Amino acid sequence: MLEERLVNIETKITFQEDLIEELNKTVYQQQNRLDRLERICESLVRHIESLEEAGSEGMPAVERPPHY
Questions:
Q1: pLDDT of 45
Q2: For the chain, how are helix, strand and coil distributed in percent, rounded to 5?
Q3: What 8-state DSSP symbol labels residue 40?
Q4: DSSP code of 59?
Q5: Tens of pLDDT along 12-44?
Q6: What is the pTM for the complete model shown?
Q7: Which H or E run contains 24?
């Protein structure tokens, strides 16, 4: 009976170790994706800001549409 309990406990521990390793891999992959998405967002913000700056230099702030 004691041997069976020990085997059962060892089996559970092995399963938990595998699960923890798999969870660590998942968290690592998610962090990499988050980092990549943050870099993409920052790049898009810089790109939009540069487009706004370039667009505002050649155009007046308020312009009436041609149909008025």
A1: 97
A2: 85, 0, 15
A3: H
A4: S
A5: 999 999 999 999 999 999 999 999 999 999 999
A6: 0.65
A7: helix 2-58
